[in-house]
């Protein structure tokens, strides 16, 4: 009897998209291909009403695990594809229970339930018949008790038209929409907790994200760049391709700071960051900007200041965390694997020239005057003409472009020089 390992990948909202379903499933298929782990060998991908079935040439647990990180996928069932016969379903279920629980299968009983489903209604056994037959046989083979209301293990049988699928495990995917199905955005990525989480929220709504990080160089060490790099590398698990630009903002910040009242410096800096991000967004054909702002978190994030900041650009500034508490943001950062990186110490460009008491109220006209005095156009073009670019793919080991690798290693050397002449704050 032939039985084949496969992975059932069930679509989330993409499946509900009516007319546009083809667009969403195409994007998802592309992203699935980009995320395939090398361990699976070559993988055949078959669409079947509301799901994709993945048949790898080499079986490994990595494939299912990896699919849980692809936005647009709600549910992932590692499964076996079998012939359409009750005995084949039983063999497939027992095989997988042995694979999953090994010696524990007999030692520790687990309450279980069988859920059979017939897509092919002409199949001669009803779902209820299958549930009864499989329930009794699995109980006999394992000694496990049946519990339909609170099973610890659920065994699913999906009787399709050509063949059937049997699974004993279900993994939760990140859900949402396939990356790329909503367009492209430029994320302002600091080294903190907020912006990586904001990026993930927008990727899950279908935006392909590029990233820009501002370092305070030449007045800060490169620690914030390492963090931004590590953060994008982690986030690149969730989309096929990610790019990070690093801008050195230190000199422009100084010029801007000397042209503005101390209280307005932070807002002036944010406007400068957004202008540069928008310039990059134009080059990348990105239609939106994304920040990790959360209302009232710091002085620069009052409604008045957010309004003033938005005035600097024409593209929409998306702030998915605007109504989130810090605690909620950190919990989400833990789930998506960015918290441990965000937690590391760094020299942040924003704290470099931060005034003791930033204004909580500002208006666009005043900031425009400050910017004219500082020569904002030159500050933007000067910064944009000197960017470093790094490129990452969704594969397990993110790839560094040769140009990026050279730049990062030269920054490492200059950071060692920095340590040699440690300033009092450098720690
Ligand atoms: P935290 O997570 O500690 O709040 P943060 O970087 O979010 O750190 P904020 O001062 O709250 O700090 O910044 C608000 C938003 O502005 C950030 O979420 C980010 O989108 C953007 N931002 C701030 N600093 C930078 C930076 N150095 N490079 C790129 N974007 C930045
Ligand atoms: Mg913040």
From TrEMBL:
Q: Quick one: where's region Disordered?
A: 396-427
**UniProt keywords, alphabetically:** ATP-binding, Cytoplasm, Nucleotide-binding, RNA-binding, Thiamine biosynthesis, Transferase, tRNA-binding
One Pfam family it belongs to: ThiI_fer
Q: Which InterPro entries match?
A: Rossmann-like_a/b/a_fold, ThiI_AANH, ThiI_fer, ThiI_N, THUMP_dom, THUMP_ThiI, tRNA_STrfase, tRNA_sulfurtransferase_ThiI
What EC number(s) does the entry state? 2.8.1.4
Q: In which pathway does it act?
A: Cofactor biosynthesis; thiamine diphosphate biosynthesis
Coiled coil (residue ranges): none
**Molecular function terms from GO:** ATP binding; CCA tRNA nucleotidyltransferase activity; tRNA binding; tRNA-uracil-4 sulfurtransferase activity
Q: Which Gene3D superfamilies match?
A: 3.30.2130.30, HUPs
Q: Which residues bind ATP?
A: 188-189, 213-214, 270, 292, 301
Among its keywords, does the record have Methyltransferase?
no
Q: What are its GO cellular component terms?
A: cytosol
Which terms does the UniProt entry file under GO BP? thiamine biosynthetic process; thiamine diphosphate biosynthetic process; thiazole biosynthetic process; tRNA 4-thiouridine biosynthesis
Where is this protein localized, as stated in its record? Cytoplasm
Please give the PROSITE patterns that the UniProt record associates with this protein: THUMP
Give me the reactions it catalyses.
Answer: [ThiI sulfur-carrier protein]-S-sulfanyl-L-cysteine + a uridine in tRNA + 2 reduced [2Fe-2S]-[ferredoxin] + ATP + H(+) = [ThiI sulfur-carrier protein]-L-cysteine + a 4-thiouridine in tRNA + 2 oxidized [2Fe-2S]-[ferredoxin] + AMP + diphosphate; [ThiS sulfur-carrier protein]-C-terminal Gly-Gly-AMP + S-sulfanyl-L-cysteinyl-[cysteine desulfurase] + AH2 = [ThiS sulfur-carrier protein]-C-terminal-Gly-aminoethanethioate + L-cysteinyl-[cysteine desulfurase] + A + AMP + 2 H(+)
Residue ranges of every copy of the THUMP domain listed in the record: 61-170
**Signal peptide extent:** none
Q: Which PANTHER family match?
A: TRNA SULFURTRANSFERASE
Briefly, what is this protein's role? Answer: Catalyzes the ATP-dependent transfer of a sulfur to tRNA to produce 4-thiouridine in position 8 of tRNAs, which functions as a near-UV photosensor. Also catalyzes the transfer of sulfur to the sulfur carrier protein ThiS, forming ThiS-thiocarboxylate. This is a step in the synthesis of thiazole, in the thiamine biosynthesis pathway. The sulfur is donated as persulfide by IscS.
Q: Spell out the family assignment given in the record's similarity comment.
A: Belongs to the ThiI family.
**Annotated protein name in UniProt:** Probable tRNA sulfurtransferase
Annotated organism of origin: Garicola koreensis
């Amino acid at each position: 009897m032939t039985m084949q390992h496969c992975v059932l990948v069930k679509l989330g909202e993409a499946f509900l998209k009516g007319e546009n379903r083809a667009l969403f499933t195409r994007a998802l298929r592309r992203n699935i291909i980009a995320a395939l782990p090398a361990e699976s060998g070559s993988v055949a991908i078959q669409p079947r009403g509301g799901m994709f079935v993945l048949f790898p040439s080499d079986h490994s647990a990595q494939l299912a695990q990896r699919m849980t990180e692809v936005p647009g996928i709600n549910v992932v069932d590692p499964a076996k594809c079998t012939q359409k016969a009750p005995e084949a379903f039983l063999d497939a279920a027992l095989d997988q229970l042995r694979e999953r629980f090994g010696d524990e299968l007999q030692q520790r009983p687990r309450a279980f339930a069988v859920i059979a489903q017939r897509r092919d209604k002409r199949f001669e056994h009803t779902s209820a018949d299958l549930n009864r037959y499989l329930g009794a046989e699995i109980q006999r083979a394992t000694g496990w008790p049946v519990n339909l209301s609170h099973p610890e293990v659920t065994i699913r049988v999906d009787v399709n038209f050509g063949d059937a699928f049997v699974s004993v495990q279900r993994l939760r995917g990140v859900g949402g929409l396939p990356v790329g199905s909503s367009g492209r955005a430029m994320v302002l990525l600091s080294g903190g907790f907020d912006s990586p989480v904001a990026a993930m929220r927008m990727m899950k709504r279908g935006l392909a994200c590029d990233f820009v990080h501002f370092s305070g160089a030449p007045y800060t060490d490169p620690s914030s760049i390492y963090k931004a790099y590590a953060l994008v590398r982690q986030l690149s698990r969730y989309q096929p391709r990610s790019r990070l630009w690093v801008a050195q903002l230190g000199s422009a910040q100084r010029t801007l700071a000397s042209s503005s009242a101390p209280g307005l410096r932070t807002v002036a800096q944010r406007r400068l960051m957004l202008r540069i991000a928008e310039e990059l967004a134009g080059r990348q054909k990105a239609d939106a900007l994304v920040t990790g702002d959360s209302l009232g978190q710091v002085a620069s994030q009052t409604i008045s200041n957010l309004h003033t900041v938005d005035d600097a650009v024409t593209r929409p500034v998306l702030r998915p965390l605007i109504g989130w508490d810090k605690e909620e943001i950190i919990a989400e950062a833990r789930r998506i694997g960015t918290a441990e990186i965000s937690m590391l110490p760094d020299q942040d460009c924003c704290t470099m020239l931060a005034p003791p008491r930033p204004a909580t109220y500002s208006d666009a006209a005043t900031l425009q005057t400050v910017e004219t005095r500082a020569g904002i156009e030159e500050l933007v073009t000067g910064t944009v003409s000197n960017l470093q670019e790094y490129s990452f793919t969704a594969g397990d080991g993110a790839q560094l472009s040769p140009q990026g690798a050279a730049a990062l290693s030269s920054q490492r050397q200059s950071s060692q020089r920095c340590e040699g002449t440690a300033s009092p704050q450098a720690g």
